[in-house]
Amino acid sequence: MKKALKQMLAVDLGASSGRVMLGGFDGEKISVEELHRFSNDPVTLGGTMYWDFLRLFHEIRQGLLQSKKYGKADSISVDTWGVDFGLLDAGGRLLENPVHYRDGRVNGMLEKSFSLLDADRFYQITGTQFMEINTVFQLLSLAENRPELLERADCLLMMPDLFHYFLCGEKCCEYSAASTTQLMNAAEKTWSKEVTDALGLPERILFPISSSGTPLAPLRTDIAQELGIEPMLTVAGAGHDTQCAMAAVPTQEKDFIFISCGTWSLFGTELPAPIITQDSRRLNIANEGGVGGRISFLKNIIGLWLVQESRRQWKREGQEYSFGELEKLAEKEAPFRSLIDPDAPEFVPAGNVPERIREFCRRTGQPVPETPGQIVRCIDESLALKYRMTLDEIRTCTGKDYPVIHMVGGGTQSALLCRFTAAACARPVFAGPVEATVYGNLAIQLMAAGQINGLSELRSVVAASEPVKKYEPEDAQAWTEAYGRYRERFA
């Protein structure tokens, strides 16, 4: 028998846009409807790149307003990108707009940290992929350059927890978001005093870590009254959007490979416990926390950011292309003409990505891609080959083979990238759902309400809610040869 219909709101904030989505559950399937979509536009002021937190909070309120026409929602949960945070003073006031992870304040902080804490020991504690954007290096920059701000801070809240706090008034530090900071002991799931002491960071501002799917307080009365809506429960689901997507991978396999593909590509597998070994350290693979205390053993790879930022550059130059048009142009270009390492540091900041790709190819002695089609073909082929390299690294660390790949998120809308991924990895790719993050967000709220029992049932519900598309490998010999060249150049 079907359970009673339940309605929830999922706020999904990505690096370039955000949505407020309405979810319904009839006991078997989750339905999803978009209520409000808005851009997420960082603001550079005085040489610092900020997230426009006030505008984003206003847009969430607009989504709440739109929900009125559908009746009472039972709960709401926010998921965002990882690593970024806000600082509150003792009165619960935001000290400044959160700074964007692409801001230059982190430059040099990775190397600085290794002079304070041995890199191997650092990884042994945290099990986290070393990336200069990580929270710990942002805080080290503040300790070095703005210690007075940390002195004024009473509490650090990761971005999803910051939104939850201003929605309901309750502070929380949810596990999946905390695991992106490189401040957490991966095995113990607690903040590492050894790391904070070694780097001179104030442990006192770190709020205790709570499990994914923790119910918080209801929506603040003043917000509910102003918008004319009934208060709903706020749920700290999986605040890191990758872990929402991971929870929604529609499979019952114990061992599987997933790619959560959007602005970033998160490539990995799910484990019951962290893998922290010499191999995982050498290969710089992260152990991130997920739903039910599971571990996502993964690598962060720059993803469709390269296409998104290239598209923005062409628009600045007076040429506006849709993603579909760019894919058609790329389809017509010659294969394997030019390849890049998507994770080369020059591709991280915003700016003229097409010119950076051309310069990368000049420097590495390859034909220089000039047209938009050549640029996008270079990006998609390079991403697919990077996925294959990462698959081999995951297999090295786990000792397991993985017969298929599950690809979820916005990147699954690119049939070209899905085809290239299947071909490069020599495995079928099951693509979908596109809205995996939203499905995960909603389903975790249902778990918190006791209407879904555990990850296995959650994934069965998602599988029943939206079909997936299968891509078989093609052109095996050509891709195998291209992968050999790619490894020689970039491994």
UniProtKB/TrEMBL annotation:
The keyword Kinase belongs to this UniProt entry's keyword annotation: yes
Leader sequence segment: none
Highest taxon of source: Bacteria
GO biological process: glycerol metabolic process; rhamnose catabolic process
Alphabetically ordered keywords of this record: ATP-binding, Disulfide bond, Kinase, Nucleotide-binding, Rhamnose metabolism, Transferase
GO terms, molecular function: ATP binding; glycerol kinase activity; rhamnulokinase activity
Listed Pfam families: FGGY_C (PF02782), FGGY_N (PF00370)
Domain Carbohydrate kinase FGGY N-terminal per the UniProt entry, residue ranges: 8-246
InterPro entries, alphabetized: ATPase_NBD, Carb_kinase_FGGY, FGGY_C, FGGY_N, Rhamnulokinase
GO cellular component: cytosol
Domain Carbohydrate kinase FGGY C-terminal: 259-449
Family per record: Belongs to the FGGY kinase family.
Protein name: Rhamnulokinase
Record lineage: Bacteria, Bacillati, Bacillota, Clostridia, Lachnospirales
